[in-house]
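Sequence only, no structure available. Ideas?
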Amino acid sequence: MALNYEKYVAGLVERGRAAQRIAENYDQKTVDRLTEAVAYALTVPETALKFGEMLVEESGMGIAADKQAKMFSKIKGSYAQMKGRPSVGLVEVDEKMGMEKYAKPMGVVGAIIPVTNGEATPVVKSLMALKTRNAILLAPHPKAKKTNIAVTELIRSILKKYGAPEDLVQAVEPEYVSVECSQQIMKQVDFILATGGTPMVRQAYSSGNPTIGVGTGNVVCIVDGTTNLDEAADMIIRSKIFDHATSCSTENNIIVLESVYDDFTRAIAKQGAYIAKEGTPEKEKIVKTLWPETPANHDLNRHIVAQSAARIAEIAGIDAPNVKVILVEENSGYGNEFPLTGEKLSPVAELRKAKDFDDAVRQTLHILEYQGKGHSIGIHTALKERVTLLGEKIPVCKVCVNLPQSLSNSGSWNCGFPMSMTLGCGTWGHNSISWNATYKDLLNFTYVARPIPSWQPKDEELFSDEVRAAFAG
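Reply:
I predicted one. C-alpha cells follow.
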C-alpha cells in the first residue's frame, strides 16, 4: 500500500501546532530552562559519542570521535549564544525613538537535516526552535534516519521530564523518510530551515513558504607565505581530516603563491599530505576515482564521500597507506572540464600555484564562479591590506584569516562567527541571508511606536551647500 505523505505530514503539523500553542504562552524562564536541559543532556560525553557512532555506522561516513566533538562545540556554542538573551515578549526598547520590539514565534518550523551533520544539526535546530517557542519537524537524509529518530526521542524525553509538550520536537519516522515526505513538510509548515545540497535548498525556496537555506560550499584558501608555513599546513590538515571532510566548509582549493610553493608543499607533505603532481598517472587515477564518468558528467563517486584519504588512495590504486590528505595539482583551467575545481566532500583538495597575490585573487574568482560563490574563503597572511581586499572584492559571506576553515566558518570558540549548522551565502549562493543562522532567525517581531518630538532636520542640515547650490534657481 502506497504511503500517503500528505496525510502523514498533516498529522505531524497538527500535533506541532497544538504543542506550539502551549509553548506560545511560556515565559522566558521556562524557555531558558528547556534549552539548558536539552543542551546539557545532548552533550554528556557518552551520549554525544553514542550518536556519533550511530551515524557513522548508519551512513558509512565520518569519524565518531569528531562527530562527538562537533556536538560539543556546536550544541554548547549555540546554547552559549542564546543563554540569557531575551526571546520572549519585550526584547528591545529605544527610548529616544519611542520604539519597542516584541519577539514572537513563527509556528511550526520544518528542518531539513543533511547526512553529513546528522548528529549535531537536529539538536541545534531544536534548540533554536525551543528558544523561540516554535515547534519543529526534523526531516533527515535517508542515511541518517535512525540516528535522527534516536536524537529526537531523547529530546522529547527531556521535554516530558520538564512538563513541556513532546510534540514541540518531532522527527519523520524512518519508514516515511523520503524526498516526497520532505516536499510535503516544505509545503505545510510555516517556515523552512534547510541545510543540505543545492537542489534540495532550491526546492525549499520554491515551496511557497518562507525559507532560510544554504549555498554550495567550495572553499578556496590562499597561502601567501607571510605567515609560518608549518602552521598554515597544520591548520589545513586539521580542517581537511576533521570528520573525513564531511563539511562543505573545508578547504577544497588551495592557492599558494609561487615564491613559497615549494616550501609549502614540503611543509604539508611532512605533516601527512600526499601530492599528486600535474601530468602524472597518479593525478588521473585520483580524478577518475572521484569522478568515474568524467568528462561525460561530474557526478561525485558516492563511495569516496567522507572516507579517509588512505581509503581513497587505496581505491585509486595509489600506495599511500599513511596519508592524511590528498592534494592534486591543477594549473590548467576551471569548470566542467576541470572537475577538481569543484567540491569534493572528502580529504582531497585541488592545489594551485599563483604568480602573485593578484593572480591568486583572479584564480579565486574563477573557481567561485564555477562553484561555491557566496559561501566562504580563507587566507593565511600577515598583511592586513590583503584581508581587506578579499573582504571588499570576493563574493563570499565569510573570510577566515589564519584559521582552519571547517573548524571556524560555522563558528568556533576562537573566532567571532556565530555557532551554526546553517551558513547563509547571500544572493551569490541563492540564499536569503548572508550570515550564520541562529535562533534570532526563527522569530517574528512586533514593533510599537509612540509619539516623540519631531526629528525632521532643516534642509541646511540635511543637504550640503554644494548640492543645494547646484540646484538653486
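The chain has two domains: 5-213+438-448, 219-416.
Hope that gets you unstuck.
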